[in-house]
Write a structure and sequence with these properties.
It is a single chain. With about 150 residues, the protein is mainly alpha-helical. It has a single domain, classed as Rossmann fold (3-Layer(aba) Sandwich). It has 6 helices and 5 strands; from the N terminus they run E-H-H-E-H-H-E-H-H-E-E. The strands form 2 sheets. The protein has a 3-stranded parallel beta sheet. A two-stranded parallel ribbon has the order 2-3. Helix 5 crosses helix 6. It is globular. The protein starts with a strand and ends in a 7-residue tail after the last strand.
């Protein structure tokens, strides 16, 4: 089974949080046999956080080390672009022939790219973000983990 990690999951590994320990126990995401994916969008979000929060050399080195363990997927691929458009239209309840079944959901554009990438790969999206819940079973399988359980 392939996994695509949302930005918040990579951040949990950077913080070496209890959540990352639990993820390793349950899914072995950063084990030598795993090959988790992330979107290029996640890389941009992480480096932006690094700059905004003025991370020191040790934290930057850890980020680089973690990124080396992940497969980064470019978003400039036609299937991802098409998935982005369909998921956005679906989330706005405007995708012809595929009703949302609830009120429209405004998703962040970065989240749309991330889930479009997971959908193209047919990978399970692992996140702590509730914004993907309406897409579970529609475009992608979502494993949403409540980070409060691990605090």
């Amino acid at each position: 089974m392939m996994h695509l990690l949302d930005t918040n999951i990579v951040l949990a590994y950077l913080k070496k949080s209890a959540l990352s320990v639990a993820l390793d126990k349950q899914y072995g995401l950063l084990s030598e046999h795993a090959n988790p994916f992330i979107s290029a969008v996640t890389v941009g979000e992480l480096w932006s956080l690094c700059l905004q929060n003025n991370w020191g050399p040790k934290r930057r080195e850890l980020l680089i080390e973690i990124l080396r363990q992940l497969t980064i997927v470019d978003i400039n691929l036609e299937p991802i672009i098409q998935n982005y458009a369909e998921i956005d239209a679906f989330s706005q309840s405007k995708l012809m022939g595929r009703p949302l079944g609830s009120s429209a959901r405004n998703m962040g554009k970065n989240d749309l790219w991330i889930v479009a990438t997971a959908s193209m790969l047919d990978a399970v999206l692992i996140t702590t973000d509730k914004d993907f819940d309406h897409l579970h079973g529609q475009f992608v399988e979502v494993i949403r983990i409540d980070p409060d359980v691990y605090r």
